[in-house]
Amino acid sequence: MNKGKVNNMKLYKEQIELTSHGKTPSYFDITPQVKEAIAKSRVKEGICTVLTAHTTCSVFFEEFVHDYTENGDEFLQVDLNNVLEKIIPNQTDYGQYTYPGEKHYEAVESWPDAEVYLPGGDRTQLFNCDAHLKSTILGSSETFEVADGKLGVGTTGYIYFVDFDRTRSRKRKCKIIIMGEEA
Fold first, then answer.
1. Residues 6+ away with beta carbon under 8 Å from 23
2. In the chain, what is the straight-line distance between the N-terminal and C-terminal CA atoms, in Å?
3. Residue 118 gets which letter from DSSP?
4. 55 phi/psi in degrees, rounded to 5
5. DSSP letters spanning 20-50
6. Residue of 142, 138, 103 lying closest to 123 (CA atoms)
7. For residue 183, what pLDDT band results from cuts at 50, 70 and 90?
8. Which residue pairs, CB below 8 angstroms and at least 24 apart, start in 15-18?
């Protein structure tokens, strides 16, 4: 930064939509969208924050992996799932976790769109305590440097969005916020 000079600061926001598949955690490589948003922002030097407002989702930074399972999952994602499941097992039964409790069920049942969350009144559709805990551990955002108008990470650094909720497919939103000196 130049001392005594007023810089031309810019704020740019973009939102991307993703659809999780349910059954297993849904991982998305969002690096291309972040790079594209930085280019569109015209910010030369600054920061880029990538975040989600969903409580079962996380944004994290990891090495790109060239190996995949037969299901199309990257090896590091499989390893992450295995490690997280050891410390936070997938919720499969009532009473396995204290969440969700009776008051939470009652609140969801009172919502105008309750059928979306409890299809046919099926309370097992809220068996996602593990997803909330896993996303809490990884966090909901990451912040990156924007250097010379580009994402300031190494060659193998990639940005991932994950929805740990396995109960059903859902539409998810991820926000990209770029602040800095305009090119």
1. 166
2. 14
3. S
4. -80, -5
5. --SSS-EEEE-HHHHHHHHHHHTEEEEEEEE
6. 103
7. confident
8. 15/173, 15/174, 15/175, 15/176, 16/173, 16/174, 16/176, 17/171, 17/172, 17/173, 17/174, 18/161, 18/163, 18/171, 18/172, 18/173, 18/174
Cα dihedral sign for 82, 84, 87, 88?
A: negative
Helix axes 75-87, 129-138, angle to 10 degrees: 110
- The string of pLDDT tens digits covering residues 90-126 is 999 999 999 999 999 999 999 999 999 999 999 999 9
Q: How high is the pLDDT of residue 44?
A: 97
Structure-token pair, residue 108: 């969801």
Q: What is the pLDDT of residues 120-174, one digit of tens each?
A: 999 999 999 999 999 999 999 999 999 999 999 999 999 999 999 999 999 999 9
Q: Tell me, what amino acid is at 137?
A: I
Q: Give the pLDDT confidence score for residue 72 in this predicted structure.
A: 86
> How is residue 41 written in tokens?
């922002």
Q: How many CA atoms lie within 13 A of 127 on its CB side?
A: 16
